[in-house]
Amino acid sequence: MLLYQFCFIAFTCVAFCREVTFPPVSGVQHALGYAPDSTPNLSLDLSTILFSGLATYANLPYVHCLAGDDHPIEKYDIAIIGAPFDTGVTARPGARFGPGGIRQGSRRIAAQFSWSVYTGRNYFQEWAKVVDCGDAPLTVLDNTIALKQLDKTHRVISGRKANATDYAVPRIITLGGDHTTTLSALRSTYDHWGAVSVIHFDSHIDTWDPAVLGGGISHYAGVNHGTFLHIAHEEGLLLNTSLHAGIRAPVSNPKYDLQHDRACGFHIVRARDLDKLGMQGIIEKLKHHVAGTKVYISVDIDVLDPAFAPATGTAEVGGWTTRELLTILDGLSGMEVIGADVVEVAPIYDNPGETTVLAAAEVCTILTLTLP
Ligand SMILES: *[C@@H]1O[C@H](CO)[C@@H](O)[C@H](O)[C@H]1NC(C)=O
Ligand SMILES: *[C@@H]1O[C@H](CO)[C@@H](O)[C@H](O)[C@H]1NC(C)=O
Ligand SMILES: *[C@@H]1O[C@H](CO)[C@@H](O)[C@H](O)[C@H]1NC(C)=O
Ligand SMILES: [Mn+2]
């Protein structure tokens, strides 16, 4: 009897179950990029699907920018390069995984879907060909060698002919990495463009004299994420029209540190100055201060409050919100920006919602547009 019932149920199911057809996954994803008046192509064409394959920044094409001379590669105008280096950090390590984290945070960003509702512009479809060059190969065991490898990475990537004719050489946006990595970028911009004004978004001044921060231990220890701007000044890479934005971390010696900061060519806009000046006031102050000079924009993600960017090496409370930073960065377009970075992203401290890497990915998108 039992056997009979079982056979009956099995038979009726074969005979009467609905045939459920799920739409092919490629069809659903294709529809994201379709014009409103066309019908999605539900074939199984897998060749043009977004959000799959390996993660490049913003689904941009990967180019092996560090290939040897015998290996011809596509031309580009703006190169994204990861700098997985975090042994110059003075607190929490982990920014060596920053480039991968920022790419993960950018999975939903794509050229075909990037028209800004604020500016009406598409960060990836203007004059420039933007590509992701992957990460620089940096040894994790020797800072001196790693920074020389990063210097050379910048030389090779910026040493090629740009795709567009207006600019002779490509420009670079670095994904850090701790802030020490900005030193290599500034050496490279100096080679092509001379000394620059740095607009340095950070909660810390990062101009500490190596004699104060690390150099008392060894010369080697004096090259770190809190001294790189001192070293850049010493090497003559900076104009005295540089400034910090978002500063709030305490200093170790108010007289010496701040005087020294001015001697390195910096003016300070503090985090709470935003409360008085408003965002437009901050934008005008930054633009006015660097007017007429070539500009490098460096964004330490710790400029944001830890509520918006917990995943960083030296978090400081009382910072700007993500929206405030994005508005200020949008306001900086139109200057002559010759390079940029977003650094100090240490994904291990991020939350399950990926708050920090999402913010860093969006910052990088706007930086792409500030390069005119
Ligand atoms: C749909 O894509 C397939 C594979 O690329 C192509 O052969 C076919 O012509 C496309 N159909 C339409 C209506 O565009
Ligand atoms: C790159 O250069 C080629 C040849 O000049 C041009 O056709 C193409 O539009 C350029 N690409 C971009 C994205 O500017
Ligand atoms: C900045 O440098 C310029 C040119 O070298 C010089 O004329 C000017 O006095 C300097 N300004 C400050 C504040 O040091
Ligand atoms: Mn910093």
Protein described:
With 372 residues, this protein is an alpha/beta fold. It has one domain (57-66, 73-370): 3-Layer(aba) Sandwich (Arginase, Chain A), CATH 3.40.800.10. 32% of the residues lie in helices and 13% in strands. The longest helix has 18 residues, at 273-290. The radius of gyration is 24 Å and the shape is globular. Residues 25-31 have low confidence and may be disordered. The protein binds 2-acetamido-2-deoxy-beta-D-glucopyranose (3 copies) and manganese (II) ion. One 2-acetamido-2-deoxy-beta-D-glucopyranose (NAG) binds at residues 41, 43, 45.
Kindly summarize this structure in a few lines:
This is Arginase. Its cofactor is Mn(2+). This protein has 372 residues and is α/β, with parallel strands linked by helices.
Shape: globular
Report the CATH C-level class.
Answer: Alpha Beta
CATH homologous superfamily heading: Ureohydrolase domain
Mind telling me the C-alpha Rg? 24 Å
Low-confidence spans: 25-31
Q: Number of domains in the coordinates?
A: 1
CATH topology: Arginase, Chain A
Biggest β-sheet description: 8 strands, parallel
Distance between the termini: 81 Å
Organism: Baudoinia panamericana (strain UAMH 10762)
Signal peptide: 1-17
Binding site for Mn(2+): 179, 202, 204, 206, 300, 302
InterPro entries: Ureohydrolase, Ureohydrolase_dom_sf, Ureohydrolase_Mn_BS
Give the SSE layout.
Layout: H1 2-16, H2 25-30, E1 78-83, H3 98-105, E2 130-135, H4 143-158, E3 171-176, H5 182-193, E4 197-201, H6 228-234, E5 242-247, H7 254-263, E6 266-270, H8 273-290, E7 295-300, H9 322-331, E8 337-343, H10 355-370
Parallel strand pairs: 1-2, 1-3, 3-8, 4-5, 4-7, 5-6, 7-8
Bound molecules: 2-acetamido-2-deoxy-beta-D-glucopyranose (NAG) (3 copies) and manganese (II) ion.
Keywords: Hydrolase, Manganese, Metal-binding, Signal
Signal peptide: 1-17
GO molecular function, one term: metal ion binding
